[in-house]
Amino acid sequence: MADVGRPGFIWAAPATLFFGAFAIVPLIMVVVLSFMSWDGIGDPEFTGFDNWRRVFDDPVMIKSIWLSLLLTALGVLLQTPLSIMLGVWAAGNQKNRAVLSAVYFVPLLLSATAVSVVWRALLDPNFGVPAEATWLFGDGNLFGEQATAIGVLAFVSTWQFTPFHTLIYQGAARAIPQVLYQAAEIDGAGRYRQFFHVTLPQLRNAVMTSMILMVVGGLTTFETVLILTQGGPGTDTTISAYYMYEEAFKSFDYGAGATVALVLVLAATAISLIMVRLSGYDKMRSTTEGL
């Protein structure tokens, strides 16, 4: 039988062309636009680093970076343990597991816009749940203070995206060889010791994949802020993606908007590479080595 060998470049050509047309080319255009002044109507004018200086001289921009990092960190801290526990549970054979998993994964089917609209209505200070439970929510205006507004954003993001990361951990947990658990049982390890000494180490690659997706998603989230808080109160929830929207589509300063967009791309890429390097994930060591 003839050795077919590896597929040629022609097999990757469609995906390469698609990625180039809808990712690389727009990114190059954003880089060029970040050095231009353009209001969306006339011809762009080259201004050098003026956009970069002006953006980073704006205290709202600096504040938005810290807010983006804060919301991203909250997302990772809240979603990671929840996703791991739910994913490991969903990988088992518990009674009614399939039905409960299907119900829990419903938020995953909804768009971020739909989820934000629903929670905006539910948390409305005049007609929503807080208005009926003043004993718990006080005046009911969860969007009136920075701490509660950020808490709402973190909660809504966790409610929507935890099911997605749960799927990652569910698949990874089902791939763990049962022989590891059998060996642990022979050694006298109970359920909790098996979880911490067998399950978690085997999930390390899935954890890193999930966390990178959380970081990229957290830094680029936009619809939730636009619908729930509009960057308020004041600029207390104006994250970088929303700041980019205001500069480009409200102030019609597309050069500044492109600059912020490029900053987000560079930040997400840098953080992801640092996480991969520090975790050793780039070596892709097998979690079943020796089996």
Secondary structure: elements and pairs:
Elements: H1 13-33, E1 36-37, E2 45-46, H2 50-57, H3 59-90, H4 97-104, H5 106-109, H6 112-122, H7 129-132, H8 134-137, H9 146-174, H10 178-186, H11 191-202, H12 204-220, H13 223-228, H14 240-250, H15 254-279
Antiparallel strand pairs: 1-2
Helix pairs in contact: 1-15, 2-15, 3-9, 3-12, 3-14, 12-15, 14-15
Could you explain the architecture of this structure?
Belongs to the binding-protein-dependent transport system permease family. Its main location: membrane. The chain is mostly helical and 291 residues long. It is 69% helix and 1% strand. The longest helix is centred in the N-terminal third of the chain and has 32 residues, at 59-90. The protein has helices spanning 13-33, 50-57, 59-90, 97-104, 106-109, 112-122, 129-132, 134-137, 146-174, 178-186, 191-202, 204-220, 223-228, 240-250, 254-279; strands at residues 36-37, 45-46. It is globular. Strand 1 and strand 2 (45-46) form a beta hairpin. It has a two-stranded antiparallel sheet with strand order 1-2. The protein has a single domain (60-283), classed as Orthogonal Bundle (MetI-like fold). It is built from 15 helices and two strands.
